[in-house]
Amino acid sequence: GIGIAIGAGFYEGAIIASLMVILSLFFFSKVEGKISFGTNEEIIHIKSINKAGQIGKISTLFGESNIKIRDIKVETKDEKVVTIKIRVIVPRRVDIWNIIENLVLIDGIKSANRHE
């Protein structure tokens, strides 16, 4: 719609529509955070051997428990070990400590902790 409005020369309408879209996205992102009754946001710190496929294994474990990944940051201290910080949305029925215990069972994961 906005592209068609610009193409037709209706710049004012396109600007108004764009502002409405931006405001509604901002508003609804705030509302979404407030109405997430059935979830907790957690940050998990993982130390792992630096090898291919580790994030995929971690993601699979989270997916099996319906845990949604919001953000992943990987910090390399040396060529052999990486620190992975993952911000996740955990359903309330999921025991985060059980997930952390299962993370450590993944080959190459040295430690996993919940950030307090």
Give a quick summary of the entry.
By secondary structure, the chain is of the alpha+beta class. It is built from four helices and four strands; from the N terminus they run ααβαββαβ.
Notes on the structure:
This protein is of the alpha+beta class and 116 residues long. It is built from four helices and four strands; from the N terminus they run ααβαββαβ. Strands 2-3-1-4 form a four-stranded antiparallel β-sheet, covered by helices on one side. A hairpin with a 4-residue loop joins β2 and β3. The protein is elongated, with a radius of gyration of 20 Å.
Q: Give the ordered list of helices and strands.
A: HHEHEEHE
Strand order in the sheet with the most strands = 2-3-1-4
Uncertain residue segments: none
| Bulk shape | elongated
Number of strands: 4
Share of β-strand residues: 25-35%
Main sheet specs: 4 strands, antiparallel
Decide which structural class fits the backbone.
Answer: alpha+beta
